[in-house]
Fold:
Amino acid sequence: MSFGSRSLPWNKGEKEMHRIMHVAGQGNPNSPFLSPGAGYMVQGAPLLALGTLDDQDRPWTTIWGGDPGFGRPVAKNVIGIKTAVDRRFDPVVEALIGGADEGEIVREEGEGRMVGGLTIDLESRMRVKLHGHMIAGAMEGNGDREKGVGQMQLVVSINKSVGNCPKYLNSKRIVPFTPQPKLISDSSQLPPEALSLLNKADMFFMSSSDGSEDVDTNHRGGPAGFVRVISNDESGAVIVYPEYSGNRMYESLGNLKMNPFAGITVPDFDTGDVLYLTGKTEILIGKEAGAVLLRSNLAVKVTITSARFVEKGLTFTGIPEKLSPYNPPVRYAANEKVAHVNVSEENLNHATLLNTTKLTPTISRFRFSIEDPDAIATWKPGQYATLAFEDYLDQGYSHMRDEDPQSLNDDFLRTFTVSSPPSSSNKEFELTIRKIGRVTNFLFEQQRRAKLRGGFQVPLKGFGGEFRFAKKEAGGIIPVIAGGIGITPLLGQIDSMDLKQLRLLWGIGIEDIGLVADTLKRYPQLVGSTTIFLSGEDADLELEELKLLKKAVETGVRIERRRVGEEDVARVNEEEGVDEWYMCVGPRLKSSILNWLAGRRVVYEDFGY
Structure:
């Protein structure tokens, strides 16, 4: 999130990664404070990953929690944490308060020790990153000292926060667990228990630092076993993991460019065991990545310099729920025997393109049929479809070309919100898509070719997401803010909504008037519930677009020739029956709206997938 002139700069390492990965002109979405949404997540999420540097400047990461509510904002840009922890073997506890006596308050001098955090709800697959400095910490005496458990209190000032998308997060229901920490190994040569954990782990948490100003803590996830062990001898284990296509901010990798050390924690959600690692990293790009981790274009190799495997060291376990539809197949290390077997074949369903409708110069509606509808779960209103374009667009990681930068760090998996309600046959669905990048450019090219040949098919990995408008009692209000193509989650849910409760504020550029006209034609019942905020000049329109504008006006829908503003949101907010807001907008507008709605519950989806 960013607020105009207060937008934060990228550090040198991030800029270098942007240059290498051909990312140009991307703004920094971090808020230079604890945003309202971040504060809400801190007190509502059941888990908090925390990272810091020890006295040898080695990064370590831990994961705390079990029940929501153990952390909360306590002052402006300050959070407080009170939770049970492993007081003996948790390296972050050791780094933060050392050997302090029970009840002794450890206060930091000056700005305080750098701390990175990731507050995360694995059930809803929501996460927010936090950056800050420790103010004070203490270990209370009401834990179970004999079992090595204590009550940690920590106060942290926050100077940066940002929400992240749910990519590669496999949802889990977190259950509190009574820890009984026992150190099994502190060798950098990993014991069999640690190797077994890595073989089944589908996520870990990692902290990195730019060396002087910032610690960044985030997660990495994928299919079970996505972290591969290259070697494991007395000099220390060497592991490697793939960097899948993400938000292209490269905050973790940017830090590793400047300071190549990382701290990793791997939780065992089944048993409560935990593996702590710290080591030196090497970022592998292109051919170097593919030579170590097959079918990879970007990977990180970590040589472990210190490790701890702790049995029952966590205060929670997790019950697996839904896998992320983004997860690609496991990519094996080149030195593994299985790596030379064909592991790319999957039992995928396929979607066949039936027809397309051009709505604006850059937006079209695509109608697909499902090859085997009985073999895939029926989608729900508000969900997205995940399509795999790798077979069409992956040129092979041995071909890194400046003229084709979008092929870098791309798994060619894309999610598009389904813009049609579930049908009786569950066989056909529609996607309303804007042409904005390499994959969508390819899809729009198929729009032209399908008219000539037909039959274009793309692998369909499934449906996911839970951006659903909750049903309200009589008198309830459903306020929705949509930006441009962000109207699509609403379109798939119209048939199941009481539109008398809807207050839709739809901001859109005049160049997309075709989408407005088509939506009001297909769903005339929206007219009475909608205010359209139309930006741009009529002089920019072609004759046909002017006709579409006239048709939109003739529907009687309320049209404001400006952008949506705080006063518009406040007007709806004053109505009785408003208890939560929904929005699907771009990052900049999202930042402003969260500021306008501070203190309100806001459910949102953005364009960060």
The CA atoms of residues 20 and 517 lie 42 Å apart. The two ends are 15 Å apart (CA to CA). Residues 1-5, 339-347, 396-409 have pLDDT under 50 and may be disordered. The first helix runs from residue 12 to 20.
